[in-house]
Write a structure and sequence with these properties.
Distance between the termini: 45 Å
Largest sheet: 2 strands, antiparallel
Radius of gyration: 19 Å
CATH architecture of the domain at 85-150: Orthogonal Bundle
Shape: elongated
Number of strands: 2
Strand order of the largest sheet: 1-2
Structural class: mainly alpha
CATH superfamily of the domain at 85-150: lambda repressor-like DNA-binding domains
Amino acid sequence: MSHPRTSLPEIDAGKLARIVAARLPSLEDRRAFVHDRGVGFHTIVRAATKRPLAAQAFLTLCAGLGLDPLTLEPAAGDMPPFRGEVIWPMAGAALQVARHLHGHDQRAVSRAARLSLATVNRAENGQALSAGSLLRLAAYVGLHPHAWSGPPALPQAAQTRNVSRETCSETC
């Protein structure tokens, strides 16, 4: 079974830089945006200078600016919400499922998505990717990249519970 050849999304770094410059023209605007939206200052500088971004940073910036990361246009009402963090193991599992449903091996995915075999392997193993790689693999799977987002993880201390041996049989 072959996967339909669709046009792969590309990040228009120039367009993103123009949007950042128009909406965040001053240093004070950028500092306020960092504080209010949780976007790293380094991310804003990289976007403004047309440099590549990690997927997490790119999606967070687009969400903060109210943009669809696929088009860099204002977000539409039917777009899935960005919930804070990319859940990389979920993205990897979705890629594996889609690949198996299409009868592809990783080489076929790398050709269809125009990515290296190593990038496809990293994705399936739940490792973080660049923004461009995430967009291409989301297109291959047929999902919006926001579909793989979830709430930010709890700090490690908040994830552990102190449960005594006496109550473990009741709660564990």
